[in-house]
Design goal:
mainly beta, six-stranded antiparallel β-sheet
Amino acid sequence: MPISQFPQAAEKFEIQAYKRPKNLKELLKSHVAFTGSPRKHPFDPERIILVADPYSSNAFYYEFHKSDISYLEERPNLVNGGGQTVLMARIWVKKNSIGVRSARFIVGDTR
């Protein structure tokens, strides 16, 4: 019986180990949490992209500088109907940091 589908190499995304904060209440005062699927930035290795809802038809993403992330929590992975899994994480970003939020939209008159 011939094999019709061969296993493919999954894209490996190494998550840097972040030290768990001693006091989570202090973290809440100085950071904001964002949850999504982390991705490597295509051009800048010092930045990270976080896709908020990767299986949504109206997906958007955040972009942060790695040095602004103080803590990362792994969340349960998402699985689509085809059995593909997506890594999910919650990242804690320092308040007053600069981030980019990008979303798709349809171009047209606003009249």
